[in-house]
């Protein structure tokens, strides 16, 4: 008996959704589920015979709309989980640093990693960490909205860097088709913070990102603050 | 010490490239590398400090151009591997059913799985199988060009179904953002052959696929028959 682990990808926003389950008890969690792919995810949960226990968001996303609320409607015993301090009315659990959630014999631990947004949480399970937009592969999240702070993100990434070097990193996005990295690689090669970049240089690099706002931000943030409850189903 | 395993994705053709390596000896193989993402893959191989030993193609692709030749140019000790019977002049090894390749302490075994094309090969390593376009997640490859045969594909998939139920399936493509399946799931839920579909029904379903030709077929097939040697570098 082992961990069922299914990384899933949404092409338009390049978002990774992660489905994890205990293959024996069939209890499952899903991390960062996306509105556009909810039928795929519901179908997979049903085919695998899973009982969805937690619907976890690493943060309130600005680039895509969550399927948390529709998933909860479908799997009514599931609890929606967001980090404490997030301005959301729809979460069943507001999780804080060090809190654990269990599914079957597995335990996932919240690690507060603010900076991309003020309510960002990473999740550690065994030799894997789900970093949301805090730490991306060779990059990191932007810090220019939703209470973002490059200064806080520097501390959060240093916190992530205390994990074992071989820990596998599963981010919320990758725009180049990479699916996984590791702590040692990001310490060495991350283009924002790798190779021992100091706080001042990191903040300067983040502030120089010069990105346009996500196309969906004015729809996605309000929608995600109610866990996608106000989005008309697309089937 | 363990297996380094990196699934990589190319968005335009929805192709998965797989990089595998022995974390101790650093010997590596790459399966179905794509022209457009070769700089990403070369960068990753270099950052991880790997010695590329085999550049493996599951088949001569019709939808994208391989980066086999450019990879070999960069990593000159690597050998290009294709299934026997493929009309290619560029392979160093023409592999046949049951042949093994080793990298570090790991062994990967060729399983001939014709049908999508006549030269298709799947590769088994431990509890993983790389199925190319023979068996896709909830689907299978088309059989209407390059010596394709739905009849042969039926036998090939039955052959794949002799693997242990928990074997993880890593296909060459997924168009819905799924990254992995398992033998038992495809036996149960595959929309072409799952649930005990018989040969006649399978052949009928494959013949009813009604797909247009891949946009790149007239460029990709000749290019891949020389392992991408005639493609001008894009950097």
Automatic annotation (TrEMBL), chains A, B:
InterPro entries reported in the protein's UniProt record: Metallo-B-lactamas, Mito_Persulfide_Diox, POD-like_MBL-fold, RibonucZ/Hydroxyglut_hydro
Gene3D superfamilies: Ribonuclease Z/Hydroxyacylglutathione hydrolase-like (3.60.15.10)
UniProt entry tagged with the keyword Iron: yes
GO BP terms: glutathione metabolic process; hydrogen sulfide metabolic process
Metallo-beta-lactamase domain ranges (all copies): 14-173
Keywords: Acetylation, Dioxygenase, Hydrolase, Iron, Metal-binding, Oxidoreductase, Transit peptide
GO molecular function: hydrolase activity; metal ion binding; sulfur dioxygenase activity
Cofactors: Fe(2+)
Domain of life: Bacteria
Stated family: Belongs to the metallo-beta-lactamase superfamily. Glyoxalase II family.
Name of this protein: MBL fold metallo-hydrolase
Organism: Candidatus Thiodubiliella endoseptemdiera
